[in-house]
Fold each of these.
Amino acid sequence: MERFVVITKEDFTVLLERLLGAYQVIAPVEREGRIFLSYVSDPAEVNMEYKGTTLLPPKRFFFPEVEVLFTYRVTGGRVELYDKLEEVRGAKRALLGVRPCDIKSLEILDKVLIGEYKDPYYAARRDGTLIVGLTCNEPDEYCFCAFTGSGPQASGGFDLLMTDLGDRYLVEIGSDKGERVVNLNLDLFKPASKDEVNEREEMLKRVEAEIRRQELPDLTKVYEAFAKNFDAELWLEYGRRCLACGKCNYVCPTCRCFDVYDEPSLDGSSGKRVRVWDSCHFLSFTRVAGGKVFRSERPSRVKQRIYHKYCYGVDEIGEIECVGCGRCIKVCPAGIDIREAAKRVVEL
Amino acid sequence: MAKEVVLEKVARIEGLLNLAVVIREGRVAEARAEALEGTRLLERILLGRDYEEVPDLASRMCGVCQAIHRVTSVQALERALGVELPEQLELLRELVAIGGHLQSHILHLYFFVLPDFMGRSSVFELLPSHEPLIRRVLRLKRIANAITEIVGGRAVHPVTPVVGGFTSLPSRLKLERALALAKAFRDLVEEPVRLILSLEAPEFERRTAYVSLRGDGEIPLLKGPVAVSGRGEFQPHEYERHIRYVTESYSMARHYTLSDGSEYMVGALARLNNNYHNLSDGAREMAASFSVKFPSYSPFDNNRAQALELVHFAERAIEILDALLESPPGRARIGFEVHEGEGVAVTEAPRGLLIHHYRLDARGRVTLANIVTPTAQNYKNLEADAREFVTVLLKQGVEDLERKTEMLIRAYDPCVSCSARFFREH
Amino acid sequence: MEKPKVGIFSMSSCEGCLVQVLNLEDKILEMMRSVELVDCRLLGVKKSYDRLDIAIVEGAVMSDEEERELREIRERSKILVALGDCACHGGRFLFKDFKFDSVPVDLPRGLKSFRADPLDKYVKVDYYVYGCPIDGDDFLRLFKELLMGKEYRPAPFNVCAECVLKDNECLLDKGIPCLGPITRGGCGAVCPTSGRRCIGCRGLAEDANVDSLIEIFTKRGIEVPEYLWELKKQVGGGRRG
Amino acid sequence: MRGNPYLPALAKIVKTRRETPDTATFRLEIEGSGGLEFTPGQFIEVSAFGYGEAPFSISSSPLERSYVEVTVRRVGNVTRALFNMGEGGVVGVRGPFGRGWPIEEMKGQNLLMIGGGIGIAPLRPLIEYVIAHRNSFGDVILLYGARTPKDIVYKEELERWREHIDVRLTVDVGDETWRGRTGVVTVLLDDVEVDPRETYSVQCGPPIMIYFVTRRLVEMGFTDDRILFSLERLMKCGMGFCGHCMIGGKYVCRDGPVFKYSEVKGLLEPALVR
Ligand SMILES: Cc1cc2nc3c(=O)[nH]c(=O)nc-3n(C[C@H](O)[C@H](O)[C@H](O)COP(=O)(O)OP(=O)(O)OC[C@H]3O[C@@H](n4cnc5c(N)ncnc54)[C@H](O)[C@@H]3O)c2cc1C
Ligand code: SF4
Ligand code: SF4
Ligand code: SF4
């Protein structure tokens, strides 16, 4: 089987129909001018022509903002637990139209959440999900994946990767799972020509050049510069601006901190244990008994996120944990720009 | 020797109210409706504020009828700025108002009034004997809330109505859901309404002037001339020539009279007395089957009128939603320019006629604000009713004079927090 | 076991928060099964009792009489909960920079001056349920936790955090003066989700950065309202924690 | 780890012992297994269903296989619930988590243990281990500081331990019955004579104690890899996922809670903050 096949846009709609029969499909949809990932039931809802990234990243489909871990029931002196993991297992899903940066973010989350310990909820959702990526034809002004080594080319982590070539898509097969999908729908695909593959390369080069118009350092190699400048003045400046709203964490495809609490029923006889997204920018994030807050100063919280991306990630999983999607920059009301911060640190 | 009967902090009404009745030589000499609620100076606080802030503040006048306060303030500001809405947006506005009416009437009739007739002091005490009814009523409340939330963004203190329209519009899906909800409301409300219509209220009549908006084939909530029964009509902007206020040292609220000093009544009863022929088919049939007739001169019939309105406005909501689904609104908000201006809006709050009046400067800052609430308008009438009703009761020598008098107060569905905004600048 | 005794009281307010409690519908019936409601004027409940386990007080203190009543409630109650913005902050966040003391008013009923004070100006408040109006589910959570002997803690985040989870476009980007960045969350960002700016009804967030918001407004050409300067003076614009 | 690591095993509180007015030791028997295999210094996550979950150092002896114990100070929701539940209560247990004291490495050496307040809890299993293997260790000194005499935990054990190791106490504030030393725990260090080259110092206590004790130990000539402490951070999962306990590139729950000073000294974010 070749690594590259093509499918016309018309046939892609047919493919979508078929996928909808076999999978729960998550795809980009547009509503009121905004693009977001959502479960879809109708090919007409799917929008594969969007620019840049979605506001919220795909992580929410693997690590949802609110997740019930288990429920419990207390009767007399007895407690019974009901694992919610069972409900997560076995769902067959297809995630369509995710960008190379987001594909990379899933690979990063895999390294973090499926290691010595395994987060079973995340792992189960990952297992059951087919990843169909979509390269960028048009990055937006916040994209800088070329500097984080995570785009515009995706080097792996997908089952299929589509590239828009006008009236058709070039599809790269990235895994056995992806290949099976193609084989099952051979009537819709045909082998790609050399020209078509070249066309994609040209396109990606153009996109990369566009992103590289920004002048940024190679962000995969900023560890030393960061390590040296932990106490630099500029962190105070960012700290003064930061609103501690946590939007940057919520939209970051690799942020995965969470809080856990119990939610009892009204009579207390049953309830659930829930985990929700948390943010290292919240004051309460490091509060321990006695009221001590370890990162009570805002600059230290701003640093926590940025250092986690460019330094601690390297300590933790051997690579930086920023994929250059630019979401955190887009949503920050205070205009804190992580690439600008990195650049300034390198130039110190 | 004079004896003073004071009903203190009357329960199951919105806000703090005392009713003091002075009895001299077996005859009622005086009745005072004393609003105790802390005055909230709202009109003063509005001065100098940007017109955009007004609706948020105005809705905080009252937690029960917040929806209509918001809509009325927005309409008054629109008059001031010369903004005219397309019909669909007006329909949506009416829907917000209807949601508020349904919420409020359910609360009043079943949480506040019903216990009186069942000889109980609170709705919780009704629970053991009437659980299915209470559950049904709670469900109706939930539906009314949901309708308000769909259009207004939140069930209490809605957020979407703004000058020029709405900040956002409900999707088709949501409108469909609202329609289903309105239909469910209409079905479910039938039995509880019958219950109210069948209750035996104390017998008491006193003719007064009934003031409400008057409609052509409808019971208008947001527009129309103001009808004063037996004395014709006036236009909203002329309100100051037709009603006037008096300040009473005993009350935190202003009390209103007609220009000749006579008292008048506003509310559901006034609306139906002036618009009876416009009741929806369903409501009219129900009225007929219980031989409820309008005009009625018994203040206790205000509750019956409210019950009929539950049916009427549910049916009206269905009509509106059908129309909106047929031709949905295009834009959520129309453009306008901020300039100097003055505007008055007169609407029907659940408790009756509501007036918001603003003047804006060239930058859109408020330079004058005047709000006339239904309860404030009703105080004088309530006092007059109380005088006569207590006189009757004394003659009959009834034992539960206080309870009966409280029932009279409750029939008015007073909303004291709304009314207590008294202030006078030095 | 005896059911905890609960009283619900109103100082001066619009009673919208109590309406929100009533709006809990079926859940309120369930709630009432686990407690004994002994005092609530709005619902017509008035039983005789000495001590209260939980007093829920709505509204701001506006008169000597209310002050007296509040102190009495406090004396009698184990736990006192301030319900809604009026009780938590005297409704001042809503009224913004309005200077109550400076209003020359001629008040009826022998009142000398105007005031709208938060409960904790006079008595110790154990728990605060923020918002104008409060969020019903928030109240339900407090109620459950109190019954279980848990400490209720308000949301640790501000409105923006919830706003972004609703997939909203930020209003500041459209030049709308949203107070979400400095306002305590927990309302589900209802206002921005409906396209309306947050007016800060839940009060200042625990770690509100007023300075930065002023800077943001200025940078985006949004006129900085007087009350933000006022707030800056009060909290120093900076960190609290 | 088998199965779902977020799902606790159920355990019964079979015994509680009041230590101080706000501290008690809870003996837990885990359904099916009784106790746990663990290294002293490791911790477990204990659930009070409806109230939440919190980390506690295992305070019982590692040689004991039929139960585990935790010593808990009542400060918040979970801890209060444990106190209210008392004997017979059913809780959840996950773990053990983290890295405990490096016992093999410490064998043949002197031990200088320093505990502050409830921080003595993770030292108790170590002490029991040392006493059971007394010949494998050199001189063993325990310095223990509590706020007041009433706040001293493990009163019985302290008496028993005295027979095997050198136990010295101090309290911040004494009372009429108190005959011993007063002052914070660092005052006890002044009288300690050990050879830092053949001694491991082992400490656990509030952040401020660790900060000052570490400074003092360095002055005394302890090298950074002979200064060991157990750190406290907020933690929700115990597995390095929830992020709360992160310091620099390390997770206290997974890479700690026991650290050598040398391991955290190089971290960008200071691990020892006052
Ligand atoms: C590895 C490790 C080992 C530990 N070992 C032990 C041990 O052996 N024994 C022991 O007693 N403890 C130990 N602890 C500490 C223990 O985990 C905490 O005391 C426990 O988590 C408290 O849980 P809680 O639910 O009872 O308290 P919480 O309800 O979580 O409250 C804790 C404190 O924080 C305050 N607080 C929390 N949130 C807020 C807020 N939003 N606003 C204001 N105040 C707030 C509370 O008032 C209270 O004082 C250990 C901790 C770690 C990390
Ligand atoms: S840190 Fe910002 S740019 Fe980097 S991956 Fe996260 S959201 Fe994207
Ligand atoms: S719209 Fe308001 S609440 Fe939402 S993110 Fe922007 S500033 Fe925050
Ligand atoms: S968004 Fe702001 S104004 Fe609206 S409810 Fe929440 S806190 Fe209040």
Amino acid sequence: MADCYVINRELIAMVSIIMGLLYLVLGPLFGGLVTGLDRRISARMQGRFGPPILQPFYDVLKLFEKEQIVVRRSQNVYVYFYLLFIVFTGVLFFMGEDLLLVIFSLTLAAIFFVLAGYKGGSPFSIIGAERELLQMMAYEPMVLMMAVGMYMATKSFYVGDIVTSPAMPIMLLPGIFIGLTYVLTIKLRKSPFDLSTSHHGHQELVKGITTEYSGPALALIEIAHFYEVPFLVGFVFLFFGSHWLLGLLVCAAVYFLEILIDNTFARTKWQFMVAASWVVAAIFGFGNIIILSLLG
Amino acid sequence: MTLAFLIMIQNLVLFLIGFPALAALILAGVPNNNFRNRLVWVFGLIILVVSVVLVVGFGSISSEMLSFHSKALEKVMFYGEWVMSLLILVLSIKHKKLAPLFLVVIQTSLLTWFELGYGHQLEAANNLFVDKLSLVMALIIGVIGSLICIYAVGYMKEFHEKQHPEIKDRRALFFFILFFFLSAMFGIVFSNNLMWLFFFWEVTTLSSFLLIGYKQNEESINNAFRAVFMNLFGGVFFAMAIIYLFLTTNTIELNQMLGLGGLVMLPVVFLSIAGMTKAAQMPFSSWLLGAMVAPTPVSALLHSSTMVKAGVYLLIRVAPLLGGTLAGLLVACVGGVTFIITSFIAISQSDAKKVLAYSTIANLGLIVMCSGIGTPAAIWAAILLVIFHAIAKGLLFLSVGVVEHKLHSRDIESMDNLIIKMPRLAWMLLVGMAGMFLAPFGMLISKWAVLKALVDANPGLTVVLIYGSAATLFFWVKWMGKILAVVQPEKTDETGISRSEWTALYALVTATIAVCLTFPLISRLMIEPFVFGSSTATTILTRGNSLIMIIMMGFVILFRFSLPKKDEGERIVETYLSGLNVDQRNAYSAPLGATKSFISKNYYLSKYFGEKNLSSIGVATSWLIVMLLIGSSLPWLV
Amino acid sequence: MSNRTIIPFGPQHPVLPEPIHLDLVMEDELVVEAIPRIGWVHRGLEKLVEKKDFLEMTYVAERICGICSFIHGLTYCHGIEQIMNIEVPIRAHFLRTLWSELSRIHSHLLWLGLVADAFGFESLFMHSWRIREKVLDIIEATTGGRVIFGSAKVGGTRRDIDNEMLKRIIAQVTEIEKEMKEISQTFLNDYSVQQRLKGVGILSKADANMLGAVGPMLRASGINQDMRKLNYAAYGHIDWEPVMAQDGDCFARVEVRVGELFQATDMIRQVIEKMPEGPVDVKVTGSPNGEFFARTEQPRGEVIYYLKGNGSKNLERMRVRTPTFANIPAITKILPGIQLADVPMMLLTIDPCISCTER
Amino acid sequence: MTYLAKSPWIIHYDATSCNGCDIEVLACLTPMYDVERFGIINTGNPKHADIFLITGSVNEQNVKVVENIYNQMPNPKVVVAIGICATSGGIFRECYNVLGGVDKVIPVDVYVPGCAVRPEAIIDGVVKAIGVLEEKHTQMKKGAAKS
Amino acid sequence: MVLKSLFSKPATYMYPLLTREPMVGSRGSIVNHVDQCSYCTLCQKKCPTDAIVVDREKKTWAIDSMRCITCNACVDVCPKSCLEMLTTYSSSKTAAELSR
Amino acid sequence: MIEEQKLIEIIPSELVAKVRDMFVEQYRLVQIGCTKLPDRIEINYSFDKNYQFINYRLILANDKVEVPSVSSVYWNALFYENEIHDLFGLNIVGIVLDFKGTFYETKEKYAFATCPPPIEPVIKTTPVVNIKEKGKPQ
Ligand code: NFV
Ligand code: SF4
Ligand code: SF4
Ligand code: SF4
């Protein structure tokens, strides 16, 4: 009996390390592909042909071929650490670690990104940074509520436990699911909430936070965005516990929905974004939590 | 435990209470500034060392009662109480402040009546005691307190000689109060006799009052009276608690009271209210903001790191009794309201000290909330918060103090380019801020613990933490950004900062980082045994998670050292200014033929998070809750 | 310390297709002051009259702006014709009206796209421009150029359109109209669009008049004024009423322009139906002597050409006051008090055309 | 082959263009011509751009702006003058405030004629520019290898 | 509308993979059928951008395609009708090609 | 169908009063434009109300004459007046927002004030590279 337990633990450790490694390697590939597909689908929605699916990779490789220009010599370090912590977050997630820790690490990464914006020291990057902060303020509550909800539904904060739990958290957390989908739009930098930096040029902040980052440094930012996609989608996946197939299907559906939203909404202003996300979090997220806690 | 051992502890404890008082008297008597300053160094270091020795040497004890008795001391306290009341009375009359006058009269008459009527029965079996919580508190007071005193040497020199020549130099008084205050703080955490505890409590009130009024201009005097008024309000509740306790249960000892459990709800509630006033919780929070007029070491020592912690200390003490009761829930609500409202307000503030003050109140609110919840996990989280907050906030206040002296402004917006102008200080501020909310640092760990505690105990309350943290994130990061953003390179100038200031700052930076690295150890040795009764290392933050946190910490430290020192072949270009750049990096050619610099200010969102609206909402709701709280305890009267 | 951010907005800025600068003074994101600076497109082409004769100047006039090119040429020619008392063949008048309205559609679609982009609705931008390409195809087929028509001429038009082509245009316009209905649905009824447009940048009726606003900007504030009512070209021969809106906000401006899209298609149909046969130009002899203020309605509003000849081949003075110039005072007045996020959109709601403005 | 060819990002600036060429540049981005097929993105930010599309001749006030944008672009970079105004000053070259073609101010690598330019011509021009870009990239690499 | 576009064929015209037939009458570029030219220099005089250089003596006619604004003025004025406006636009050149 | 265009000549001292009358009658200021003639300078102030076009023509003997600004009546006049100042070098006093000659930063100052000799036509286009790239690593 005891032996069995030990083996099991080792097995779990093994699996989680393998998952972590897989993420390290496949994460950006997956992220890049999804981004490429996203761009293609968006183009089609706009009546265009669109770029090749591999375009995001070309972009990144291209950026590495460019000269490095900076405004301050120390500015790129923030980008390195942004990437580092994004990867770290992802690894934690895929190793099945504590969901709260994942969120904190993600926040830390995002903060490095924001600081990178400030460090850029141009009016647009600083405003971009402020806006990114507003965005963080908008989505943070809902993301934390997701973790709380997961815990209430599965009695564990561990991603590993959640994805192996036979119960489907979504059955208990429909509100939180809706709320999370809502804020995912912010996290994926999609219209209507692409306030701080948008994927497209043409907006009041030029390129927002990334205005002063170019060449290889910009490539790293792009890679960090690639790395971000798998675990953001992974959040959705969590709602389906061990029902993997269903989870994957819903992930795809949610992502498609995000693209659709991207293409059917005007960009909102930050006031609306913060208010709306908070209200959504309060109604769907918090409401869900209260109901759960009342049900016991 | 052997008797010798106990005696040693008792001696150390008495030393910690007595020595600062003695030192205070000596310092008051030294007229020469230089000599006094040197003495402050010596005394400060002694206190620091002794407190460390006490904790390191006797950290393993669980809880020891010390039956120290001294008739003389009690006399001193009795008369001391009178003297203090008289002092406040006289000053109130002098400055025509009726409200404090009124309260002090009530309080003194209550106590005089009580002591005269029952004085002979007011015997405590154990006047003092030591347990892990006291030790933790003592360590904070000893280390941070003495560091701040040392810092004050340089700061006050600069303060009087350069910055404010118009203010009368009363440094002898200043250090007298500072050390006397330390003595009182030690007294609070080691007292078991509630009368003693109350005495020390009142000493801190008085010290705070005198120090806030230190500048003796109209604003500081008004604020000082506001502070004393609110603290006296708490004091009255404290006194009533003692009296009621004694009259109904015939005891004035803390440990006995705690042992009585749910039978003593009324004194517990009243003590909580006293604690909340001292901890500047919402309806009473305005005094702490006013207290920011005092010189910065005062703000650091009294109004963020230690004195206000006396309030939450009391709450943590009674927390097990609050846990699970309606009163507890209400206390938690007060903390919650305070946390969320003040976090929001902090967004709209640009005065550095005010931001720090609001964040202090917010964090105290969190601690109060945990105490109200009262489950072991919550108490554990509360103590973590006390420790981490004391260190990081101390560091922040001290750095802001220095920056203020150098920049002649403490407005956050004036801290542009700080990373270039004063790199070392800027990094200290950054460490302090990171310590307040960032992932691998202490406060975040604590908040994490709070969240987990809340989910288990009362998921509804998590909402406060969740929204409040979002706000916290916003105002800290934008400040960090301000410091880091280099808009216009300037010369580095960090001269003229005294050794005493640097010493304190470096020590606190080290402490901030060290505490984070060693927190699993601290938790296991000091806090968990106190809270859970045994060392259950894996209860809340499992070892794996601690490990990950430490890895992250490593990354963050690595960050500081990965900043490039020299040219690595990048081409340096001007900032993007819509193509309008002229020569210098931040100048552009503007309309009307002008050449201008762009200006980037942070967002304050004052329309949404303005001080006025939010605080009136906060005060109204929290009054309501406090009224309910008092109401909820009234059934015990009959 | 006041917490005012100052940023240079433009001249090179991705939301601005053309260079213009605004010195934005903001509190958080609230604009408290906006000082404009222009001059990046100032060429000084009015002075070319000294070097080019009055017939050649038509080419210059057409190239004042690539968006409202045709009406520039038309107005210039109209002015010269008035001075020289030239009777333009009636078919030419109808052709001019046809092209004017085509260019209005293309300009408005272009603008709708840009404004959609400014409030962050990329796919709407794309679709507006997709439809616009079909208009350009008609234009190219009839004039030979996609944006610079090159068909204006003193005394008539440079090209004729054969009747078969005219029929085809009707069919194409009907198709375009269908697609325009779809995007106008989104512009007028989409919740997120309304959220951004309604109540933003309100220009009151009185202000609009006294600040000299023109065109859709003025009509959106409830003032009925459209220079086509002066009945130049063939506007006197067709039935139409100016499109109006009352609210004076960004949404009203969108409403007016969307309305004008359909008004234009309707006019095109009428023009083609009523198009008389006949020559399209007359021979011009002599040189202008006299002066005239030629006023016509551009997509952006009233344009004024002040032409003064002294009997020689070269004009003495040509002065162009374009609608955007007239609308700039209004926009400077309404910029303070809005959010940074609305600045690009607000700027665009006057449909600024800097090359027109600065000449 | 370098990846520069697969993802040339552009920045567009209008220096006294009459908008004719301007809107044709924009039209290239829209569904009909959709240059994103070639990975072309209009960045609007010199620091991200590889190709500088400039329409219109340069006037007095513009000189500094055009130089600024050019200097803020990372190497390798290519300048494409679009439209007759940009290639030679066009019909406005005699105006008192016009300096002439863009090459009076910054080195131009590709000239695209047309008044207004056709979108197809712009695409051709950009394709040529990509060639120049790759050339410059090899030179840059050689230079780096030497030093 | 968005969804409709997603499932219908994109409006993109795949230039340069496909080339559209230029429209009849589209103004592209000027050619001179030199054999008919009388070198009368009328076109040079009329050209608003001085894109055409005609040398009566040497009997040369040259056009700078980087100057021609395709206004058609020369075509209109040519007495010999030897100028023709082609529907194909003139091609872009790199700096190297131009200086050659 | 030549539309009726009223033309009224005025002198500088009448200007502001006349313009104020128009303002009171709620005429729209259509434009202000300047013309330099060999012997005099004309400034046209055009107004419109319900398609009624009225033009006041201010006649100046030379460019030294002070012209009072009407921007305190019609705020939008300031744009026209600054333009006239920058292009014709006229002395317009009391503009509410005076750009002081920075409205258009032209290569030639007051380009419209005189008639410069025509520029010699240049025939061959040769790309001139006259700018060194700044900030490149040496
Ligand atoms: N419509 C128009 Fe124009 C003219 N005239 C104007 O501002 O666009 Ni280029
Ligand atoms: S080349 Fe022609 S269309 Fe292009 S900007 Fe110049 S004048 Fe306008
Ligand atoms: S106008 Fe015709 S005939 Fe005369 S030179 Fe020109 S091309 Fe030759
Ligand atoms: S088309 Fe016009 S610009 Fe071109 S050569 Fe002929 S006259 Fe000159």
